């Protein structure tokens, strides 16, 4: 099983007061170490060596704090995607970054991608634009790199996301961790097959 290594941080406050960012960071550390269920007013206060009053002085309730934690986790993920988008083979690099995030941050991955959606999803084409903050950049990258229409770019991204998500979920669950070479070979093979299926042509 994969285990996420996390260095316990020390939190300091002036007159027992903390910023929202410090509270959210403490919550992220709890999620990393024990999962989202570990985040309670009492556990967060204990991590900060303070009292729950500190939390509720900045957040109306735990639901508001929970939403802020998810947003912070998503921002952590998006930063990795932004780096991948600058690589030469951006589309493949993003797929690898997605799986690597699942390996390095399994609990954050589960928090973002393996929980119920706040909005009802009636068809899968609605999912990625809602969940992926880099969706438009990804579609544009595919269009520019491979000369595909928007419709085909969206179809390609949906198929590759489903495939990558399966690998990432296995990784986050600790079932198996693929090597970078394995990931590159697998994603390239699937990508090539999808291109042939969508266009009936051969793109290297």
TrEMBL record:
<dbReference type="InterPro" id="IPR025996">
    <property type="entry name" value="MT1864/Rv1816-like_C"/>
</dbReference>
<feature type="DNA-binding region" description="H-T-H motif">
    <location>
        <begin position="40"/>
        <end position="59"/>
    </location>
</feature>
<protein>
    <submittedName>
        <fullName>Transcriptional regulator, TetR family</fullName>
    </submittedName>
</protein>
<dbReference type="GO" id="GO:0003677">
    <property type="term" value="F:DNA binding"/>
</dbReference>
<keyword id="KW-0805">Transcription regulation</keyword>
<dbReference type="InterPro" id="IPR001647">
    <property type="entry name" value="HTH_TetR"/>
</dbReference>
<keyword id="KW-0238">DNA-binding</keyword>
<feature type="domain" description="HTH tetR-type">
    <location>
        <begin position="17"/>
        <end position="77"/>
    </location>
</feature>
<dbReference type="InterPro" id="IPR009057">
    <property type="entry name" value="Homeodomain-like_sf"/>
</dbReference>
<keyword id="KW-0804">Transcription</keyword>
<dbReference type="InterPro" id="IPR036271">
    <property type="entry name" value="Tet_transcr_reg_TetR-rel_C_sf"/>
</dbReference>
<dbReference type="Pfam" id="PF13305">
    <property type="entry name" value="TetR_C_33"/>
</dbReference>
